[in-house]
Design brief:
about 80% helix, flat
Length: about 120
């Protein structure tokens, strides 16, 4: 924002849906109540509409899809490993806590069983 209004560059970026959500929300909150910014956005609309048609459409190389999918798989595997590691640590902690609690409860029982056997 520049003073009371968004910068022209921000309005252009907003028109192209190229702002981060926080910046876009600021413009969305401001523009409807501002005649100047509304006019600017309306003036940008035709240019944005034909932008996709005004440049040569290129076919991406076939290996691009595989490279992108490889990155996605790698990131998904890393996230899964991170989640599995956290889950394993939580399960190990839970087992130790149960074993510790069971141990505390079982000690008197084992002692009493041993005492009962010794007395018989």
């Amino acid at each position: 924002m520049n003073g009371d209004h968004p910068d022209r560059d921000d309005l252009v970026a907003y028109s192209l849906d190229a702002l981060d959500p926080r910046q876009a929300a600021a413009i969305e909150a401001h523009a409807p109540g501002c005649a100047r910014c509304t006019r600017e956005l309306e003036a940008l609309a035709p240019a944005v509409a034909v932008l996709g048609e005004s440049v040569e459409q290129l076919e991406p190389p076939p290996e691009l899809r595989e490279r992108v999918l490889a990155i996605v798989r790698e990131e998904a595997d890393a996230k899964q490993a991170e989640l599995s590691g956290a889950r394993s640590r939580d399960e190990a902690t839970s087992r130790r806590e149960r074993r510790g609690l069971r141990g505390l409860l079982m000690r008197p029982a084992v002692g009493l069983a041993g005492l009962a056997k010794w007395n018989t």
